[in-house]
Amino acid sequence: SSSPSSSFSSSSSSPSAATGAAADEVASAVAGRTAAVATEEAVADGTFTAVFRYNLPEIWWMLAGAMGSVVHGLLMPAFALIFSHMLQTLSERGDELKRDTARWCLMFTGLALVALASIYAETILFTVAGARLTRRIRLLSFKQMVRQDMAFFDRPANSTGALTTRLSVDAALLAGMTGTRISIFIQAAANVVGSAVIAVLAGWKLALALLACLPLIVLSGLWQMRALSGFSSGAKSALEESGACASEAIENVRAVAALSREALFCRRYALLLEGPYQLGKRKSFTVGVGFGISESLVFGVEALAFWYGAQLMVDTAHTDHPFEFLDMMKILSAVLFGAMAAGQAASFMPDIGKAQAAARNVLSLMHTVPAVDSLGDSADDVDSFGDPPRQARFHDADVRGGGGVE
């Protein structure tokens, strides 16, 4: 045991030492936040590269999935080629019709098996890579959240609902920024290149005329799939505010019920949902107009293709290399089917703006170093606090000075 006076003297510190420690703490905090701001500015210019580094452990999964994406992208040009020959076969008669029909039907069956294998491989491989990235980002984000100091949680942007919403939504958006984005880009590129090669080899004049309309057809397919699947509201900040309101009300439901504030929180939640609702109403008109324009574009391009194809058939009827019906169907099927498929694939492309905003939020959180880092790996962070406190057991302690302490 020890006397009270010796205990107090050993635990006291001089004012100058306390002032020096406080100054060092402020300096380290300012330096840490300055480094965090510099890191945020650095990753803002290369968001995709910074996020892709977190997905590097799954690089072989994505390479194998990219091969599946190439095969998937070539499916529609192959289908257009087989479909054109099938239409030509239907004009035949007798045994020749039966023989050629059986051959092209076997081609369709083989194409179906290739589609099954390639799409399965592409989906599984990129989904697994994206799921692992999502898990890794969520674990690292949660670790960064729990290591922050109390000032971090006092900011309005870092409320409980906003952080939990960010933890669940932002990590999922990052998965679409790497795997899904790469997959759809490769698929669409292979689709367009394969369709263009088939069209040019069949007849370059009609092919060039239809390839000039290719952006309109791709846009048409994109608008159609967006109209069928629906536009997201895009009001992330408003949804975060409503999520924070609901989360805080549910977490403190006893206090809300005791103060009879149920109606107040319901009105506040409904008010926060009004913004996304109005935005969705306005976008519904855009979807309707876009869907109508996209359908009209497809029919217009088909009219142009049949008119110009008929002109080429008439002009080359008595030449050494006549332009035939089969050539026109190859070009029309390859360009139209391929462009529509590319547009529909592009519609599944995640919103790049949302993904980049989520990436900036996550990367900013990753590089936010608190002044007091309880999970720091450096030796300086651990040694600055000295030895961890030892456990003390009190036996018959007396506040008037009696008793002993081990």
SSE diagram, text form:
Blueprint: H1 4-11, H2 15-45, H3 47-54, H4 59-89, H5 94-146, H6 150-154, H7 160-202, H8 204-212, H9 214-229, H10 236-251, H11 253-258, H12 262-315, H13 325-347, H14 352-366, H15 379-383, E1 394-395, E2 404-405
Antiparallel strand pairs: 1-2
Task: Characterise the protein shown here.
- The protein is mostly helical and 406 residues long.
- Helices cover 80% and strands 1% of the residues.
- The chain has helices at residues 4-11, 15-45, 47-54, 59-89, 94-146, 150-154, 160-202, 204-212, 214-229, 236-251, 253-258, 262-315, 325-347, 352-366, 379-383; strands at residues 394-395, 404-405.
- A two-stranded antiparallel ribbon has the order 1-2.
- The longest helix is centred in the C-terminal third of the chain and has 54 residues, at 262-315.
- It is elongated and about 115 Å long.
- The N and C termini lie close together (7 Å).
- 25% of the residues are buried.
- The model is unreliable at 1-19, 25-45, 378-389 and 402-406 (pLDDT under 50).
What percent of residues adopt helix (DSSP H or I)?
over 70%
Radius of gyration: 33 Å
Query: What low-confidence regions span 5 or more consecutive residues with pLDDT below 50?
Result: 1-19, 25-45, 378-389, 402-406
Count of beta strands? 2
